[in-house]
Amino acid sequence: MNDTELVQQVLSGNENAFRFLVAKHERLVLHVVGRIVQSQDDVKDVCQEVFIKVFRKLKRFRGDSRLSTWIATIAYNTSISHVRKQIRQAEHSYDEQPALISGEQDTSINQEIVEKEEVKKYLLQLIEELPVHYRTVLTLFHLEEFSYREIEQITGMPEGTIKSYLSRARKILKEKLEQVAKNEKTNIFVHYAE
User: Fold this and answer.
1) Cβ(145)–Cβ(176) under 8 Å?
2) Whole-angstrom distance between the N-terminal and C-terminal Cα of the chain?
3) C-beta separation of 114 from 105 below 8 A
């Protein structure tokens, strides 16, 4: 079932079609929301709010873009609104930073697997510490594989800004990985800093 048929099925009252739509796009919504909303307690609530909005606004979907782009736009805007609301209510804590996973190693596990997992967790932590716009475009481009044009539609940022943010985000990550490798006198980050 293509997006147009799926939308028509949902609009005609087919509950299973909406469940399918949610299942098909929940990973995308979780990625977008999870990169903007820092509190893991709030991520699930914001994701639910996104799908409620998708359901209510579905009749306005004209098919000018892919359905996933339209849903990602709603997820992005809902997440930004949530963060702004939290800041206004002074409930947003800037102290919340994901804890760095300790380097404990199980000797029975292959060293290379442990190192890859450690690097992956650390890299995800570094991404979480990036400014919201950097981590958003990084997620949309690299994890969700949206084009520059689609990211422009989702975020409302000009393509030049998106490219600039991606470049800066990559540079920041590379510098941090190189610094860690230097400080820790390890080469496990070498492949990721290239």
Assistant:
1) no
2) 41
3) yes
